[in-house]
Amino acid sequence: MSVTEHTAAHQHAVTMDLPFDNEQDFVDAQRGLLAALDDTLIEATDGRVVWDLGPYGDTSGDAPATVNPSLWRQAQLNLIDGLFEVVPGIYQVRGLDISSMTMVEGEKGVIVIDPLVSCETAAAALALYRSVRGDRPVTALIYTHSHVDHFGGAGGVVPNGDPGDIPIVAPEHFLEHAVSENLQAGAAMSRRSTYMYGTLLPRGPEGQMTCGLGPSPSSGTLSLLPPTVDITHTAQELVLDGVRIVFQMTPGTEAPAEMNFHFPDFRALCMAENATHNLHNVVTLRGALVRDAHAWAGFIDESISLFAADSDVSFASHHWPTWGTDNIVDYLSKQRDLYAYLNDQTLRYLNQGFTGAEIAEMIELPPTLASSWHCRGYYGSVSHNVKAVYQRYMGWFDGNPAHLWAHPPEAAAVKYVEFMGGADAALAKAEQSYEEGDYRWVAEVVNHVVFADPSNMEARELLARTYMQMGYAQENATWRNFFLTGAQELRGIDVAPPAGRNALALMAHISVTQVFDAVATRLDGIKASEHQFAINWTLSDTGERHLLRLENGVLSNVAGRHVDGAVLSVGVPRSHLLLLVVGLVTLEALVEQGIATASGDLTALDTLRGMLDPPDPAFAIVLP
Hints:
624 residues; Metallo-beta-lactamase, Chain A; Serine Threonine Protein Phosphatase 5, Tetratricopeptide repeat; Nonspecific Lipid-transfer Protein, Chain A; 3 domains; 8-stranded mixed β-sheet; 22 helices; globular
């Protein structure tokens, strides 16, 4: 689809407004290149493609009209691939996943930091490193934080996926957060991730043009190797394979469990994902708990104080490094002030009575930040981050009673269309607004028409065209992906997420409490309100006891407790608990095989399962 004159004018304005003559990022992103990838296509053992940069095509030259020139520049940088020397002894592989994998050479082997999303891409990254630096064994793993793109490929860098006695270092509470962040609202977050990352969009100038933070997440085999060494406090030190490391805890920043760390002997600082070459998310469009922008800024300031003077290079697990002490201080200071500015200015305006939506239109970055490429909103945006800060302090309600009990979207849509004089009249006016380039208004109006009657194909096509123009204009890659994927859904193109392949890799590590909490979120409360019973659980291999109680439409669990009069008592090994609870195996079968013991009403579990609602992994987003 071609761009309109309004979109073209917007792209031209971006070109005129930003310092495109500053090419230092291109110098830094290519610095230390030792070996480019011979082939960026990686397949799983079943032949499924899990990674391929080829479809992006040739990204040299000026931005095509269908891509915001600023985002095009970021995509060019994100698509530079290969093995790079950060400093002698520290190496990065970039361009094999949304994240980067770092290798630090020790006395006997190599320490791997953040082994990407998938075992296949992580193995390819390690192979590329070894092709240049020799077949050094992996002597330690470090996870900077609890997001999957920083641990999922661990099984691909240790022999046969088994770490043996290789130490695995992570911030405290890593395992809890690694499996919990996407557990309670996992289905909805996964669905929205398809939109955020443009998973089902074609790669290239009319589709997904990276995620801003990196090309995209790979789709290979996920692993989770639990940490064996916890970092619990700032200034904690370790020596791994002869390499001295000093840690800084940064909980509640980009992830609930995260840490930065310094290599004194290399004069190198790892900033995890707390300072990357873009504005990050205070809350992600896929959904998450709102992060603390004030604390985030504070931890970056602490990093400067603790480590900057003793650092010649700063690197993270996305993007490219920054060299030179003065450059590091400037870079980290602006990253610090980026989050502090959004936090403080949002609070200034909300205390004057403005709402999140209003503040998002009012706040603009000061010139010193706006002109710094690493502060641009390629992944997080000023707009949605401001709304996130407002949400953190004020919640969803903007104080206007008209919004306290509004009609839900479908019911409201019918009334809006009626008030607008019917669908035909609304669409005629919307077409005029489209010709005038007022795409935000077209989207708002025509969305009502679509929700009032999703079979109205004229409305769906107008809204799809609108989303295409809005997507093409976006500097923010995740906004672009949302708009363009929404256009696909409107046009009837399948946007169902791929079938989950890796759930058990994470689920095997959830606690008993997390298992039962997750089940509770699937309970049909009204249906369950007719029942009241308790089930006693004992883990036969550990002796751990739990009470699962159904009462008043609520399924609750209590660790370390049993009750008299339970309708059922079950003894089962930890390895079979999840399989039993979700119904992949039956209690009767486990008892017959001697794996489990049970007394009482064995059908109680079937009764409970009959009250559970399965999540919908492919629910509609731009259609009702």
